[in-house]
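Support request, please re-run this one:
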Amino acid sequence: MYLVIDDDPLICQIFEDILSSEGVETKAFSNASEVAPLLQKESIDGVIIDYHLGEFNGVEAIEGLRQQGLSHEVPTLILSSDTSEEVQRDCQDHNLEFISKYDPDLFSQIYDKLDIPLR
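Re-run finished. Output below.
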């Protein structure tokens, strides 16, 4: 199962719809704290998370989820429309892959980096 975490419900729905249409089991959440109970019940294959999540950023949220049981082996992508050097450096400093939401090959990159086979 792949997780999508974004504070914009529309983005969550779009990602869930597109990934599901490719046969990818996906659950979307608008708040990272909603994910914690799932970590004990489900096998997580990958995480796609927005950088700007309100009171936390995506890097902080992933660090918190890792403390609650998300394996460091689970591939994690940070997405953002904020392509500033600061955001990219923060992701890099935490060994997290950054992809711009404006990337014209966004979904191809997601499939490739999370090793999701296309139908």
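The radius of gyration is 13 Å. The longest strand covers residues 46-50.
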